[in-house]
Description:
Strand 5 (115-134) and strand 6 form a beta hairpin. It contains 1 helix and 9 strands. It is mainly beta. Strands 1, 2, 3, 4, 5, 6, 7, 8 and 9 form a 9-stranded antiparallel beta sheet that branches. It is elongated.
Amino acid sequence: MYRLLIASTALVAFSAVAVAADLPSRTQPAPFVPSAPPSFTWSGFYAGVNLGYAWGDFTGRTGGALYDEGDGFVGGGQLGFNAQFGQFVAGLETDLQWTNFEGGPVVPGALAGTISEAHLDYFGTVRARAGIALDRTLVFATGGFAYGSADVTAIVGGRTFSDDQTHWGWTLGGGVEHAFTNNLTAKVEYLYTDLDNETYNLDVQRKAGVEFSTVRAGLNYKF
């Protein structure tokens, strides 16, 4: 009888352990927590394109103003690099622009009767940029070195004279850029550019330069 009682007790204990093993575990799996997306940074290289409008003045002196107001469309591309330190962003950008900017014909005063036209064929800049990042929006100022090529045509006494020169100068401006994704940004900016006078060999040697403003919009891909 004693042995039967021990055997029955062992059988009941074994059955309880087996049933407990078959029961679902009360331990819940760890909840899924998605990893946070990487924070955006303006640091890195970028490249892009732009399109805009320019207006200003061709300037020159040979006894009076030589050229008149000019305007035209501009378009081109840019390359650059930014480095971000907290909210402060500093960088360097270079761009090259094609333009149909032209002015004239006006030659008043002692040169009346002379027809002159001036065309700015292209210009480019190498500029520093510095600004404040408001998360994905960058407000910046920019300035630096500028260059461009222009050609001038003068018709004097029925004879046509033409010459082209490369100009050097400076540029200054600012703008706003916004990052729509981690790689794609868009910007709007204003630049004032002053290209110094150069000597053109026409009917006589004449000095001419160009000062103009540019408003343009651009798209950049950040690598």
